[in-house]
Amino acid sequence: MNKILASMIFLCLCSFAQAQEKSKEINELKLNLNDDGSHYFKVTFLNQIWFRYNQSNPGTRVMSEPANETFDIGLRRTRIQMYGQVSDRVFVYFQFGQNNFNYLSQNAGNRKLQAFFHDALGEYRVTKGSEKLILGGGLTGTNGLSRFTQPGITSIMTMDVPIFAQATVDQTDEFTRKLSMYARGQLGKLDYRLILSDPFPITTNGAPLPPLSSNATFSQHGHQKQYQGLFIYNFFDSEPHTTPYMAGTYLGKKKVLNLEAGFITQSKATWTQETIDTTYHSMNLWSAAVFYDAPVNSEKGTALNAYVGYYQYDFGPGYLRYNGIMNPASSVTGPYPGGSQGNAFPMFGTGKVWYTQVGYLMKKDLFGEGHGTLMPYASLQSGSYDRLDKQMNVYDVGVNWLINGHTSKITLDYQSRPYYEQQSAELIRSGRRNQVVVQYQIFF
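Given the sequence above, the corresponding structure tokens read:
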């Protein structure tokens, strides 16, 4: 598979090189398939490199030794996108790469992790030149619930996306992608997505399976389809949806004010067992949000980005899942929940979540021509989950140095998160820990 992919990329690059020979200069790796460029095929590359200091959660161990703090270097995302409008009605999209590669990364003891296809989809535009109805299918990140359930990771405004919005990530999907069929489009100011997904069983996610208990976990028996929807009303500019992913910020190039609502539902998705009998539970998730991204002063190039969203999650009674992004630790001991080592916190659970972010793009060429500008930001994830004794608040404050927009940017992020102790059936908030990350993103 890797040889085939390498051959495809080589042939594309040869074609792009020939195009450059003719035009002397190209701004992107894009091959026009007709004279006016309406049919094309394009390749992009992304690498996000993290340099991170983390105060470990209590009880953390790294390779069997206690670790109060860690410093690690990792590749948060390394991706290749290949996509194009290959005819008036046909669009194809592929994404290949890997995620979360640091010093602990391995698969059955082998650090040479294989990259994999994140996306492989095809779309058919029902009416030529119209965005009203597009039918698609394949392995895709086209989802319901919210814009951050299908984020455009190259244009993130904060250092990372709010992962909790990818509610089933790597449980019954493949890094939030699912095998799906869908209809999407734009009816005037209304964007819509309706999706039927065939979720993966929890038994193939590569992690140890949790035992049945009174707290809901994803069911290991049976198989049910999943239904999703997302509806967005654009008050000003309509957002382009060339690919299924939604932008984090347009850096003042568009004036966007959106009101959105979405859902994900699946029957018998989780199970519990109180005594002998097993009880199945439906998964019902929905959200509503407002998104704003627009210029403040067009001459200076300043812009404002803001988002406020409410998420109502019902995975079944007592569902709670810890997650630590590219976790720098191996295990946890003491009166602390399993999976809470390193930088993990209770990211997903039955209950409700508020998420908000705000950022301000400062004037263009703040440091002189060719040296870019800054975009400071702040975000808050505030979760009220059934098994937690108190509100779970995670704060991020940071700044982007946009050297060349999203093509070359450095992000400095400070995060404060809570940690919890296990006391009987309840998790008691006991304190906070911090991490600092410097990320360098290259996207072309």
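The first strand starts at residue 30 and ends at 32. Try to locate this feature in the token string yourself.
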